[in-house]
Amino acid sequence: MDFETEVKSIKxxxxxxxxxxxDISKKAFRVESGCLKSYVLDSSGKEHIxxxxxxxxxxxxxxxxxxxxPSKIFIEAIEDSSLQVFSHxxxxxxxKLNDRFILEMNHKLRNSLIASNKRLIALLCxxxxxxxxEFTQTYPMLVQRLPxxxxxxxxxxTPEYLxxxxxxxxxx
Length: 172
Description:
Blueprint: H1 3-6, E1 8-12, E2 17-19, E3 27-33, E4 36-41, E5 47-53, E6 58-59, H2 62-67, E7 74-77, E8 81-87, H3 88-92, H4 99-125, H5 128-138, H6 148-155, H7 159-170
Antiparallel strand pairs: 1-8, 2-7, 3-6, 3-8, 4-5, 4-7
């Protein structure tokens, strides 16, 4: 059986949770249209966004997906979305994967790792304004699509402070 015949296309509604914390990730998702987010909840129930996945991005809890350990993250649709779903079992059988698919997934995983590293460095070293600018460079297609509260959560500030930053940058 060819790997590509095992890829499923699905549609999900805004607010649908595709993976919960504690679940073992059996799927990775490539967004064809729409947008997903991954996030964690702290002990007080506050949401901290880890990643957005707009069109052509890949999203999963990679540690859980590849190591088959319980996930620490949630994955949720923040817009109605069309997705391609890759199962862990199909992905793990390397003999089923063709070179084009391996190269494409390598490219997407590399870009995801680069974006994660940039974000980690920004969270550790950058000002809130610099983190917002980095967000706009990483996700230019989401700046107008997402509510301020989601962007603020991603960069680690309040929506009110994000509004101040946006006003300041618009005045430059």
